[in-house]
Amino acid sequence: xxxxxxxxxxxxxxxxxxxxxxxxxxxxxxxxxxxxxxxxxxxxxxxxxxxxxxxxxxxxxxxxxxxxxxxxxxxxxxxxxxxxxxxxxxxxxxxxxxxxxxxxxxxxxxxxxxxxxxxxxxxxxxxxxxxxxxxxxxxx
Amino acid sequence: xxxxxxxxxxxxxxxxxxxxxxxxxxxxxxxxxxxxxxxxxxxxxxxxxxxxxxxxxxxxxxxxxxxxxxxxxxxxxxxxxxxxxxxxxxxxxxxxxxxxxxxxxxxxxxxxxxxxxxxxxxxxxxxxxxxxxxxxxxxxxxxxxxxxxxxxxxxxxxxxxxxxxxxxxxxxxxxxxxxxxxxxxxxxxxxxxxxxxxxxxxxxxxxxxxxxxxxxxxxxxxxxxxxxxxxxxxxxxxxxxxxxxxxxxxxxxxxxxxxxxxxxxxxxxxxxxxxxxxxxxxxxxxxxxxxxxxxxxxxxxxxxxxxxxxxxxxxxxxxxxxxxxxxxxxxxxxxxxxxxxxxxxxxxxxxxxxxxxxxxxxxxxxxxxxxxxxxxxxxxxxxxxxxxxxxxxxxxxxxxxxxxxxxxxxxxxxxxxxxxxxxxxxxxxxxxxxxxxxxxxxxxxxxxxxxxxxxxxxxxxxxxxxxxxxxxxxxxxxxxxxxxxxxxxxxxxxxxxxxxxxxxxxxxxxxxxxxxxxxxxxxxxxxxxxxxxxxxxxxxxxxxxxxxxxxxxxxxxxxxxxxxxxxxxxxxxxxxxxxxxxxxxxxxxxxxxxxxxxxxxxxxxxxxxxxxxxxxxxxxxxxxxxxxxxxxxxxxxxxxxxxxxxxxxxxxxxxxxxxxxxxxxxxxxxxxxxxxxxxxxxxxxxxxxxxxxxxxxxxxxxxxxxxxxxxxxxxxxxxxxxxxxxxxxxxxxxxxxxxxxxxxxxxxxxxxxxxxxxxxxxxxxxxxxxxxxxxxxxxxxxxxxxxxxxxxxxxxxxxxxxxxxxxxxxxxxxxxxx
Lengths: 140, 818
What we know:
Chain A: It comes from Cytobacillus eiseniae. Chain A: Belongs to the CPA3 antiporters (TC 2.A.63) subunit B family. The structure holds two protein chains of two kinds. Chain A is mainly α. Chain A has one domain (6-136). Chain A has five helices and two strands. Chain A has a two-stranded antiparallel sheet. Helix content of chain B is 71%, strand content 2%. In chain B, a hairpin with a 4-residue loop joins strand 1 and strand 2 (90-96). The longest helix of chain B has 37 residues, at 350-386. Chain B has helices spanning 7-16, 23-44, 51-54, 56-66, 69-72, 98-121, 129-148, 152-170, 177-208, 213-218, 220-223, 229-243, 252-255, 261-270, 275-287, 291-312, 318-341, 350-386, 402-416, 422-436, 445-448, 451-475, 493-511, 514-528, 546-563, 565-568, 581-603, 608-629, 645-663, 667-687, 691-711, 728-750, 758-769, 774-782, 784-817, and strands spanning 78-85, 90-96. By secondary structure, chain B is mostly helical. Chain B has 35 helices and two strands. At the A-B interface, helix 2, helix 4 and helix 5 of A face helix 1, helix 31, helix 34 and helix 35 of B.
């Protein structure tokens, strides 16, 4: 199906970046305010889906040449790795570590291994939704 | 830097902190660890045979275990313990006693020789050496774990690992149909036995309250009257019999010969198949008080001994002869262990009398590993150098392969029980044990016990016979070059080293058997028959005893039968070809598959609508019954907040949306209506101040609408125009689901059985996990396990969809081509 919806395409070009930026914000903000890896991942997939609707699957694959199955697997590795990493420090599986670090420009920043875990969730969500959508929609 | 967020977890951890992995544990798991780097070594050094990297490990382990001999021969038992699942009483207790050490030495010793042999047997250019050595190391570690664990659950885990690695090794050449068949067969039979063994272990736990063998042995007298005692005994024996290929479970072993020959030499003659014997020996102190134990083991053993040797004679494949020979020899060791168990009933001098049978079992176990290992390697050499293992095609190889011929002579003569080899000594001891059955006066042995020496003698005649066939049909007689694929010549020296070492052991032990008595045999006997001091002294010449005449008789009749073989061979044709155990196995397997298919097809009809009907019907019936039986339905309006204007408005919107879905004709409209319902739900979350949920619901709704649109492509088109007919069952089920959910929601709100966990999260979210967004902290931290598994499930689902659609499209293309 050829789409030639100029308004949608032009809007998408602008909105896409806003959504993706927002999803990144939501991802990082998750620990203190509403958000997190799951919603962040969904928002990113939403942005890519919007792109797919406005253009077509082929164009999107050219712009974002990711193998989404690998992405999901990488996400699982992140989550599982963060969880298993605690074993190296002789504490139970899935124990998170956190602390405040003074980073030059950003100042006092809280760092938390849960963010790595959440990054895993983020990647899995994007990988899974995009795998499903690209597989199902591949014929169009 | 890190802090624990769960107080309880940290205290549990401190208790275990005291124990660390000992060197002994490390030795057991070292093959597993080493297996991880094998593929890397294989990739990095393609020009070097991977076997050279593997070889040092079993040699190191062998020398490590040798160092234990001084302690075990002083009746010391080395025990090292590491908690594994302390809550269930499962600790990884590594224990080195005489019996375990004997096996550990066999595993690592034969393992070293087999690895060396495999370096020359498997070509580094043609074979996938990385997988081969990974499997082999997996097996080695698992087998060490079986024989050195004092905890039955740990033992069971390793036990199944040996079945698993055996499966992988038999199926190593998986492009061959027969390899796959053999692998599956061995897996099904040994795992069946393994599961039954697990049942036996659990029964033992119920009786004794412990999984540790040494503690179970202490309670042996107390549990022998328990009604569960006999079932436990039978379950454990089933595990041992399947693993050690005892009649009627022996059928997997001949098919396992599809594995590469080094594997057959290692797993299917020297070590893995002896795991069942190990288990019987290990559990003897627990069960020996029961007559059934003695009868079952001795009975099945002697039948296996006869059946194996009788069938070995009719085989034409070298490895098939060796396979049936192994079955028969395993039966022999089994029967000796069974009779030896009777020794525990005699506390006085006589114990050494019957203990002789156990001594013979342990001694023969060792001897069998040496001569059968070398014979398998010889068979492998013949196969490798001539291209066939069929004795009808072989003949006259003596002149081409003199060293191999000598090795074959040593191995087969030892197997046949001829002096001066070690097999002669253990065969004599075997006869001693069998003849003494006549003196047993317990468990009704006075009557049927007569059969034991008779069957043993007949079986030995057949053993002699197939041994002779094995060596003389291959190496003497007419040389038939036209039937061989390659021109035969002597094997390279590297391939000969391992069988030469084994054959020298056969001779050395034949002449000096007592080097084993106090170092290996006595300590092992100590473990099988505790509290009995048996003075082991093995000698060549006993004087003109019945045993000697039995041996002479075996040789005389054996030679006669060998010379007249063509005349009486037809005896084997008398056996029915249709009523074999193999056909029973094949038929059973085919029937199971067919029946399972039939049953599955009755309800898996491919229509998603029917599946939803099943799921929702179960949902209604199970939850409805539970609600009714537990009398759980309750309506409590005292704690209900007032309903505002917005709530009513949103509820109405949802209702209108859902009901109109039923009446619209176009799919597009239906999906948009469904989307509107979802968005309204997210507005509810906004109303109830759950921004996280609202956000997620909004995005999810958007994505699922997009997904639905994409799915249009895959749905049949004509349905669009038809008016959906009204179906009563569907209506009942959908109304039922709605009613059930409402009822449960109301009851859940009205029944407050305990305080909400919310307070805990409110208090601890910031202090324990340093986060302010409680929902997110629960997701990634407090209930991180849930999330971890949820994303795993998501990934699996995505892979499933990917595979399903890609496969279907691939299949469609194929059909078009036709």
